[in-house]
Amino acid sequence: MVIKKYIVSSMNEAMTRIRYELGKDAVILSQRKIKRPGFKGFFSPKLIEVTAAVEKMAEPKNEVKKANEFESSIDSIKKLMEQELKNKSVKMDVKADTQKETAVSTSSDNELKKEMGEIKDLLSKVLEKEEIIEEDKFISFLKDRDIEEVFIKDIIRDIKATPAFEEKKEILRNYLNNLIKIDTNNLTGTVVFAGPTGVGKTTTIAKIAGKLALVEKKKVGLITIDTYRIGAVEQLKTYAEIMGIALEVVITLKEMEEAIEKLKYCDIILVDTTGRSSKNTMQISELRAFVEKASPDSIYLVMSSIIKNKDIDIILEGYKLLNYDGIIITKLDETSVYGGLVKIIKESNKPIVYVTTGQSVPEDIKKPTKRELLELILGEDSVC
Fold this sequence. Notes:
This is Flagellar biosynthesis protein FlhF. It comes from Clostridium intestinale. By secondary structure, this protein is an alpha/beta fold. It has helices at about 10-20, 60-100, 105-145, 150-160, 165-180, 200-215, 230-245, 255-260, 280-295, 310-320, 340-350, 370-375, and strands at about 1-10, 25-35, 45-55, 190-195, 220-225, 245-250, 270, 300-305, 325-330, 350-355, 365. The chain has an eight-stranded mixed β-sheet with strand order 6-5-7-4-8-9-10-11, with helices on both faces. Strands 1-3-2 form a three-stranded antiparallel β-sheet, covered by helices on one side. The two termini are about 35 Å apart.
C-alpha cells in the first residue's frame, strides 16, 4: 500500500492531486486543518492536511512517460552537442598549430558540419514532439473542465507557441481574467428576472429579497407573473409572508401596470417571470410585453451552471429579445466542473451579477469576484 500526505488550500486541489498521482482507486484516510508555518500563519487562511492511500500505484500516464523520455533525450542530445563542440575546438587548435606546415583537408570540417546539422534536426524533432505532448496535456486539462471544443480550438490557436503546460495555463488564466466581467452595482428600482423553467428564478428572488429586506433593511416589493407553474405563487407567497414583504400576483398587462403603481413606495421591486421556452419566439414575445409594462431598471437572465453546452446558445439567443443587462448563475453546488461558465460569459458578453451556491434562503447567494470564478473554472477551488 502507498500512503501519501498532501498539504493543500482546498479539498478540490487535494482531490485533483490525489487522482493524478495515486489514481482513481485512491481513498482518503484522514483530513485536518493546519496553520501555515511561520508568524504569518496566524493571520492567513488555514491549510488542509489530507492523507490518502492506494493499494497499488497506477501506471504513469502515457504522456508523462513520453515527456520523461523526451526530456532524457534532450539531455543526451545536449551532452552530445557539447562534446562535438569540444572536439571541434580541439580540431581547430590542432589546425592552427599545423597550418604553417601543411594544408589541412576541409573534408573533416564538412563532415563535422554535417553531423552538427543532423544533431540540430534531431533536437528540433524532439522539441516538436515534446511540444505536441504538452499541447495534448493542455487539451486534456481543458476537456476535463468541460470547456467546449470550439473554445479549446480558439485557446490553443492563441497560445500554440508556448510549449510548457504551466505557461499555457497561465496564459489561459489571463485570457479568462480579461473575459470575465462582474457587475458590482447594487440593485435599484424595478428588477426583472427571466430565464428557462427549472433554473431557480423564484428561489433566487427570495434570496435577494431576504438580503435586501432583512440585512439591508430596505422596503422590498415582489411581483410574480409565474401563474403557470404549479406551486410557484404559493412558494413566493410563503417567502413574502416570512419576510414581511408585499406580493402582487399579475395575470394581465393591466394588472402589471397596477402592481407597479401599488408598490411604488418600495425601494426595490423584484419581478418573477414565467419560465419560457427559448425556442418559442411567440412565448418570449409575450413575456417581453409584460417586461416592458414593468418599465424595469434592470433585467437579469437566470441560468443554471448545469445547463448543457449545446443548450446555452439556444437560451442566450432566445432571450436576446429581452435585452437583458446581466447574468445570474445558479446551482454551483450541483456540479464539479464549470466549463459552461466560459461559454455563457463569452457568448453573452454580459457581466455576472450573482451566483447561488445552495438552497438556503437568503444565505446561499453572493456577488462573486473574478478570482473566485477563475478558480472554479480552472478546478482550483470548489463553490465560491
